[in-house]
Amino acid sequence: MFVTFEGLDGSGKTTQVELLRKLLEDEGREVVVTREPGGTELGELVREVVLHRDLEIGAWAEAALFAAARSQLVGAVIRPALERGADVLCDRYIDSSLAYQGIARGLGVDPVLELNMQATGGLLPDRTVLLLVDPAGSRRRTGEAWDRIEREDDDFVVQVDRAYRELAELFPSRILAVDGTQAPERLAETIHGQLRQRS
Ligand code: T5A
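^ thats the input. predicted complex w/ T5A below
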């Protein structure tokens, strides 16, 4: 099973990935956890460039850099793990590009999806967990050490939030939207139960 986690910055993705990993490992499953951008040497370099360098990066350049990192991650980590029967949990994937670059930056969902389908050989997740927290809650949780994208203004965060809700309506059978303000352990049990029901 290939499961991705999506949501605003600080919505609790990393926390939920780790809790779900434990629940699946307790069932005897092999679980591979990875993140975007990152998860490969190239991906970590892209992460450094896109998030932590003080550079001017145009919207298409940004989308292409995320797609390049994703392409490498799929080929080197995700496909091999899925082929040997492991579960893969990925902290952000294609929907991040659709929400941030496609909708919030205005490049369009279809062209960004097309770029990413080419880059990943058409690999979509079996399920995507969307953690919903309101934009102000996201800002509170991320604190003050913001990366290049987190430094965008509040309006951008509102647009990303709307974008994710729009994607959940566009892809209802894949995207499972959950209330990200619940207590972490309770939320993990809910997600685990929903994934079992749908698998
Ligand atoms: N990006 C990425 C794009 O624009 N396009 C793309 O294609 C891709 C892949 C990546 C940035 O890049 C952009 C989006 C992002 O701006 P990142 O550094 O990977 O950013 O980090 P974020 O996604 O911002 O994730 P964070 O690590 O900041 O947050 P998480 O993982 O969502 O949240 P987590 O689990 O670390 O929790 C944050 C805080 O909240 C608390 C935690 O203890 C922690 O303090 N918390 C909760 N508190 C209350 N209730 C809960 N249920 C909680 N769960 C966690």
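The pocket of T5A is lined by residues 7, 9-15, 36-37, 51, 66, 92, 96-97, 100-101, 141-142, 147, 149-150, 180, 182, 184, 187 (CB under 6 Å).
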